[in-house]
Amino acid sequence: MLIQYLIVSALICQSFSLTGHYMNGAPINRKFHVHLTRNRVWGVPFEISQVFCGGSIISERWILTAAYCVFKLPSNTQIEVVAGRDSISQRLDPNQQNRMVTSIHIHHSYPGSNAQHDIALLKVKEPFDFNYYVGKISFEKINPVRILSDYEYNTESTIDDLSNSVAIVSGLGSISRNYTVIIPEYLQYEEVSVIDNEYCRTIIKEAAHYSLE
Hints:
mainly beta, six-stranded antiparallel barrel, three-stranded antiparallel β-sheet, 11 strands, 29% strand, globular, disordered N terminus, disulfide bond
């Protein structure tokens, strides 16, 4: 990895995309939250391109996201990061900033799908201009979470015990209480409890669409 320590907005087992589910979510304004849009058709404006994932600004030129969002994308895929916009349908918000992604760095041990090491960094071509609507995750409000080496992950010898603490997840996942997809108009958030790593492993292995082998 490029850096040993990252700031993340939640320490939970699963990352959420547009098809993830939030329960009892509430609208929120998070200046560090961004939309990732992709466009594989040259000449088609990004205003009508697809929002496919989210991320968090950790510095002027770096975005933290889930590895599965950018894993094995077609070579001709263009990714643009949209910051300062909380609405999914308002394509031309006057407060938004758009930046093109120039490089993608996926965790070297990520095997694909929603599995362990599901983390990636995106570097944008031009730095974001931080203001009231766009900014990075606050170091004063968010605790740093160390990215473990493969040895540490497998032995659990130095895992920080953050279980039973409260984290916040934010995004545009479905807000329905069943498998009907209902995408909210505005960015949502939910407070969740952090579970210990052993229990996390257990429930992930019990899910049919996960594999940690």
